[in-house]
Amino acid sequence: MDQLAKTMDQAIKTTTIKTGKYLTFSLDEEEYGIGILKVKEIIGMMPITSVPRTPAFVKGVINLRGKVIPVMDLRLKFNMGEIPYTDRTCIIVVEIELKTSTVLIGIVVDAVSEVLNIQENEIEDTPAFGTALDTAYILGLAKINGGVKILLNIDKVLSTEEIAGIGTVS
User: Fold this and answer.
1) pLDDT of res. 35
2) Can you say how many angstroms the Cα of residue 63 is from the centroid of all Cα atoms in its chain?
3) Cβ(71)–Cβ(48) under 8 Å?
4) Quick one: 91 exposed, middle or buried, by C-beta within 10 A (0-12, 13-18, 19+)?
5) 155: closest CA among 118, 90, 102?
6) Which of 47, 66, 88, 90 could lock onto 111 through a cystine, CB 3.0 to 4.6 A?
């Protein structure tokens, strides 16, 4: 019976419920969304201390009320061109689940848009772009008001190895 409970618990964890509230934001004229339960805070840009020998998309770390949080630029992670930060640029602090723990990571976005309540029937599955392209980080595509918003599975945007590489996993 214990094994059945563990198996069902694992199945529930791996099944992502797509319906719900999403914080939407823009990157390079495209709209993205992250499940609101993953968002811990939205802050304006603040000084970021760079950390040597980290990937280019890792901007460094910030001190947020005594907690050191790594910050990555989502534009650079998605291979978009780097642009100067504006007064609308902000950091979304998200909670990423690892196998044994959770970590807080800040992601720099061009601008936060709004919180949307998205229903399952408004979400299309991620199209298959071929076997060479990993799209596990895309939860689905939301069709809203004639446009498309890319819903991200923020837990899969960074791999465990990348998180370990920026010093958040011991």
Assistant:
1) 94
2) 20
3) yes
4) buried
5) 102
6) 88
- Edge-to-edge strands of the sheet including 58-64? 39-44, 90-97, 102-109, 67-73, 58-64
Please tell me the distance from the alpha carbon of residue 75 to that of residue 72, in angstroms, as a whole number.
9
- In this structure, what token pair is assigned to residue 83? 């642009």
Distance CA 124, CA 120 (A): 8
Q: How distant, in Å, are the alpha carbons of 36, 83, 164 from that of 128?
A: 26, 30, 29
Rounded percentage of the chain residues whose pLDDT exceeds 70 = 78
The answer to pTM > 0.85 is: no
pLDDT tens figures, 154-167: 988 876 566 655 55
Query: In 10 A of CB 82, how many CB atoms?
Result: 10
Name, in order, each residue with C-beta under 8 angstroms of 112's C-beta and a sequence gap of 6 or more. Answer: 23, 24, 25, 42, 90, 92
Q: What is the Cα–Cα distance from 154 to 85, expressed in whole angstroms?
A: 22
The identity of residue 91, as a single letter, is I
